[in-house]
Amino acid sequence: MLSFDPDKVSLPVGHYIDGQHIQAQGTAFAVKRPSDGKVFATLYEADAALVDRAVQVAHRRVKESGWASCPPRERGRVLRRWADLIEQDLLLAQLESLGSTRPISDVVQHEIPFTAEAIRFYAECADKYSGDVFPTRDSSLGMLVSEPYGVIAAITPWNFPLSMASWKCGPALAAGNAVVLKPSELTPFSTVRMAELAIQAGLPAGVLNIIQGGGAVTGSSLVKHPLVRKVSFTGSTLTGARIMSDAAQHGMKPVTLELGGKSPQLVFDDAGDLDVLAQRIMRGFTANGGQACVAGTRLIVQQGIAAALTDRLVALCREVQPGVTWHEQSRYAPLIDERQGCKVASVVAAAKAQGAEVLVGGERFGNTDAGWFWQPTLLSHVNSDNPAVQQEIFGPVLTVQTFSEEEEGLALAAHDTYGLCAGVHTLSLPRALRAMRAIEAGTVWINRYGRSGDFIIPTGGFLGSGIGKDLGRQAFQACQRQKSVLIDF
Ligand code: ADP
């Protein structure tokens, strides 16, 4: 039985620095449960002095403890033990489900195994990458030596708190760095539990630290801290731009930025079984209530199957039932909070004002307490400058556009701002490959939509969707810097 009582879950306290819970007082912020809007905790934001303390600790401990210099396989062993503890910890699953938008069954079946496996993937990377040796003169030896950066700042969003933390901490720690992680102020708790488990697994205290607070003070003090050598961020494009600018002005730090998206689902007449296709498109825009940067939110469908496919989607949307995240039967995620609910409502209203027709949904579910569950929504009669096509909504809203010729479909799939992902659905291999080449996006899924458990495949955006890669060998290598060496002998 996975259902639990949300009032009986014991919450970790405050910040987690040097293996200790810190209850520093400062600006208070309330933490709410997305499922019913109830305030269930108050935390205190880390100010610049506390951020400094966390970074200083990380800087010191990563050296003193030998984490940076130990045999890499030893780091791999600790990370594997950490992944095992993550998989066994029911409290972690409950904290994630209670405080975020993820139903408990989804957390247990997907989020936790996905988090643990990502860490295992980086445990395997720890000793697999080396530098290089160059042909120089007879009496010299040229080398490229990889070394960890030192302290890496990680800043994560509220939509997938655990797996986002694993994407940042896995490669950074495996490569021998320390991490100071600031989770979203909306979902602060599960990451602290994750860090406690890391210490239990044998990670030296102070090598992974969690600080709580919003972006304006805590996040920006972290990015600007002189001992932070690299910043890895997932979140909105606007915040990513601010972080890039701060990182440039405060030490020219390298950044990895995984940002927003407005990804197309390009469906051709020959895409195969329409029921399978409808399920795939449905998952693509409603998973986590549409609150995923990779959500496939623009259906671009060839005229021959447009009506049949949208009919099926409308029927699937009508089946969706909301339910609090701590019930085992719940499958559909609430929006994170009222602010996000109002944002979804305002973009839908603006879309309608510009001629969009609501095929299904378009409103908040009426039969829920204070949670913001938004009905899966299909909007037709939209052109490319409609706000629902232009803006990342971060809610379960799919726009529908149709086309007749391939060229026209490809033109509609392009987006002015974003280039994160795209889905291409056709059983014609040449057409699929033409589309893959033409689409300007960091990931193209063909006859599927969404990530698999293949952590070897990196992910990252083009255009306003970001810089650099998470996952894959690339993310590990981006957590080390290369030093050129020339030895005369
Ligand atoms: P959202 O509001 O959709 O969560 P953001 O991109 O604003 O998206 O937030 C993602 C993460 O970035 C959160 O942890 C947030 O606190 C943090 N953040 C916001 N602004 C800044 C900033 N100026 N500097 C550093 N971190 C920030």
Automatic annotation (TrEMBL):
Active site (UniProt): E258
Record has Oxidoreductase as a keyword: yes
Keyword Cell cycle attributed: no
Residue ranges of every copy of the Aldehyde dehydrogenase domain listed in the record: 24-485
Keywords in alphabetical order: Oxidoreductase
Protein family membership: Belongs to the aldehyde dehydrogenase family.
Protein name, entry field: Aldehyde dehydrogenase
Native organism taxonomy: Bacteria, Pseudomonadati, Pseudomonadota, Gammaproteobacteria, Enterobacterales
